[in-house]
Design a protein that fits this description.
Keywords: Membrane, Transmembrane, Transmembrane helix. The protein has 65 residues and is an all-alpha fold. It has one domain. Helices cover 74% and strands 0% of the residues. It is built from 3 helices and no strands. The protein starts with a helix and ends with a helix.
């Protein structure tokens, strides 16, 4: 029983570390994008537009600069 509980604690700690790493990475990427002033054609950060999946045709229609 103690072995199972110990392995459960290790799994929980690993999950927490992964989550904290993921959050830290998102914060760093957001601050880098903001500091460089990288924005897409609609004024939103470029990462937001990539997530929305704009096609090259959409970008041409909107008149990318």
């Amino acid at each position: 029983m103690q072995v199972f509980y110990f392995s459960f604690l290790i799994a929980e700690a690993t999950s927490l570390l992964f989550f904290l790493w993921w959050v830290a990475r998102r914060i760093v990427m957001a601050s880098v994008i903001r500091s460089l002033g990288i924005t897409g054609i609609s004024g939103y950060p470029l990462a937001v537009e990539v997530v929305v999946n704009l096609s090259p045709g959409d970008i041409k229609k909107r008149g990318a600069k």
